[in-house]
Amino acid sequence: MRRISVGIVDHHPITLEAIVGVIGHNTNLEVLGTGAAVSDVLQIATRCRPDVLIIEVGMPGNAFEAITNVIGSMPTVKVVAFTFAAGVATAIRALDAGAVGFVLKAAQSSELIEAIEAVARGENYITRSFASQVIAGLRDETLRRKAAAIINLSIREEQIVRLLVRGSTNKEIAARLKLSDKTVKHYMTILMQKMNARNRLEVVVAAQKMQASNFGGHALN
Q1: How far is CA 88 from CA 101, 129, 150, 206, in A?
Q2: Can you list the alpha helix ranges (DSSP code H) found in the chain?
Q3: CA dist., res. 67 & res. 47, Å (int)
Q4: pLDDT tens across 155-166, in order?
Q5: Which residues make beta-bridge pairs with 30?
Q6: pTM of the predicted model, to two decimals?
Q7: Which of 144, 161, 188 is the last residue of a domain?
Q8: Which residue, among 45, 25, 23, has the nearest Cα to 9 in the 3D structure?
Q9: Do 27 and 125 belong to one domain?
Q10: Coil, helix or strand at residue 8
Q11: What is the pLDDT of residue 216?
């Protein structure tokens, strides 16, 4: 069976040496190249063409942009983000950039091997102790993006959403805005389509996330 080729970019010499040592003890893996700076990322990807590229995302410079550049020019390379930063935002940013693996440096070395093998098989991998937090964060981010995509709400639609966020029922909204129940239901259908929401609750959640920054500030009648 062909060994999985690996590239590593980490600006901590001790960490880099440790990763090379860990991979070297695994007969299924081989290290093709290493680097210590963001500028080395694309170079190693194009020169060595590894199956998996481990990138420390906490390096000086924009490691996330480097990940995107690698995926854009070498789509067959699977990127594993490697970091001390146990923050959901960091994980989401790395995954958005194109990484398919996210491993914390505090994890066991066996997890790094597991991640390399998983992404080489075409799977995604997130450090086990951190996975549930990242998944929840991704779900929240998805809702935020749905909300941010709403750019053409009419004044009436904004009024309805504001009342929804306050917990008003369709009947209460109809009475407040002097509309028929049928008209309110029609607006709800439009709002669900615009927000890519499956139900009333998702409309409310998405609206809550965009209300402060995206609404135009139209007053209720």
Answers
A1: 13, 12, 25, 20
A2: 13-24, 38-48, 63-73, 88-97, 109-120, 128-148, 155-165, 170-177, 181-194, 200-214
A3: 16
A4: 788 888 888 888
A5: 5
A6: 0.62
A7: 144
A8: 45
A9: yes
A10: strand
A11: 42
